[in-house]
Amino acid sequence: MDSETIGFIPAVELAELILTKEISPVEYMHVLLARIAELEPKVNAFAYFAADRAMDDAKKAEAALMSGARIGRLHGVPATIKDHSITKDMPTQHGSKIVTGDQPIEDAPIVSRLRDEGAIIIGKTTVSEFGWTGVSRSPLTGITSNPWKLGYNAGASSAGAGAAAAAGYGPLHQGSDGAGSIRMPAHFSGVFGLKPSFGRVPVSGSDMTTHYGPMTRTVADSALMLEVMAGPHFLDHTSLEVGPANYLARLREGVKGRRIAYSPDLGVSRVDPEVAELVKAAVARFTELGAIVEEVPTPWAKDGPELIRFFWSAHLTDLAQYLPKWEAEMDPGLVACIKHSENVSFARYQEMSKRKMVYIENIHRWFRDWDFLLTPSASVAAFPAEKLMPDHWPTHAWDWIMWAEFSYPFNMSWNPAASVPCGFTPVGLPVGLQIVGKRFDDLGVLQASATFEQLQPWANKRPRL
Hints:
Elements: H1 3-7, H2 11-19, H3 25-43, E1 46-49, H4 51-67, E2 78-82, H5 109-116, E3 120-125, E4 137-138, E5 142-143, E6 145-146, E7 149-153, H6 159-167, E8 172-177, H7 183-189, E9 192-195, E10 211-216, H8 219-229, E11 259-262, H9 273-288, E12 292-295, H10 304-315, H11 323-326, H12 332-340, H13 346-366, E13 372-376, H14 409-412, E14 417-424, E15 430-437, H15 442-455
Parallel strand pairs: 2-3, 2-8, 11-12, 11-13
Antiparallel strand pairs: 1-3, 4-5, 6-7, 8-10, 9-10, 9-14, 13-15, 14-15
Helix pairs in contact: 3-4, 6-7, 8-15, 10-12, 10-13
């Protein structure tokens, strides 16, 4: 097979081809790594590329296959890990010069689970510095390019994961999402990204808003990857007690009769017309699938903008300790965001925390009447990655959240939410539709996504690199 064919084989198909010995893990990996090496100077999706180790692991996978040893569900299938997730044999640097070369002593639970099922970790993908922004650049790795238009924003903080998925760097890419960091890069890069219910996938050192999840080119691949990563773990006291559902086998159950709400702006967001039109057209297609779709108000959303700006800045003040030594080497926007909240009092924090809990409760009360909520994944299509905002939006020292008002509510409320590709702007840039489900209904979000994917497929569309 040629390198493009190799790079875009879905994990579900690849695992079967390896199991039946129609594809050699060694030959596959050789071609894939060569493809990545050729394209990486353009895309820059890796903070750490472990090509030699990946080849060694592919040889071990082939030997195990030939010897009749136990074969996991992802045997010989390549995967990438976001550079916020700890790995015992690769550095975890968070896109920052402050922790360059930092080497953890163990794997995160998700990394162990992927490896236990035979996945081969081929490297760590780029992130914005400490995950602070939705733009695909960092002081450590520079710009990660959108494969659909080089030099443009691929989204963040799971920047490299989204770009790698779009560029055909293999099928499975792990992301994490604290305010949209799976869904935004999925939107900008034209791939599928799922933020599961909080606790579905264990997170060591949980911060109570960050969700780990899959970024793939197909819904089925995300379903498979989620099955492997999900389930309770002793290192995460917030992880859900129950194991994952049989997501992959139940993808095709459809959405007939399901009640779906649609909001074009949550009542608080500015949205570019070219994005709004594509999302509205995608929403209309759910009626073809037998769902009951209504455009409805979201009164709970009015407090979101103030809450996210308070907590986003306040939580980043734990990085203020680095400013005396490192400020000149840090992202200027991150520095401005840290300084914005340096005088916040504990009393003010308590007051805002109480308001946040009311906000979350109102979201869940609203969802009693709806199975899903559909919105844009973000307000804009990709723009030059050296900028924090598109040229036609207001400038600000750190507030990139203006174009990302749709994501963070469901980090606060812990609902599952996905971004599915729903079309391209007139200049060929991807746009995502967000599908939000009731808390714990990860299966429902996957089913809604897969049903839309059947009606309006996207995985056959590839950037010309």
